[in-house]
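# nightly structure sweep
# worker-07 picked up a monomer target from the shared queue
# config: single-sequence mode, recycle default, output format = structure tokens
# input follows
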Amino acid sequence: MEIKLNYGIKADYTPKSIEVWEAAKPSPLSPNILFAEISGTVCDHFNVDISDFMANLKNREPKWVRLRSFVIKLMHIKGCFLKDIAKQLGKRDHSTIIHSLRTCANDYQFIKDFRQDFDSVAKRVLQ
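# output follows
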């Protein structure tokens, strides 16, 4: 998976878990699907209020919902910059997005419940 960093340099980030995702990944989203739509769908699926999602809370549930929405955006929309995703969520930076990607990749590979939740949310976003 190729990731464009906020300063325009492309970084190749292909851990084994992302290769697993690539094999099971649904077709890419059209570029006109906005991050707000993805965030709203993920919040609805996990019953998290959008204000909690956007707030800088460290509570477990909003944090995991944010992680999933970051990764869905990165996986399915080509050419999105980490810096742009972070800006859409307020006071966050590209390192938050990179951490989300790595955390979700590991959880997807090793935690069956996480994998099922993630796949169901991704399918719902694609509808």
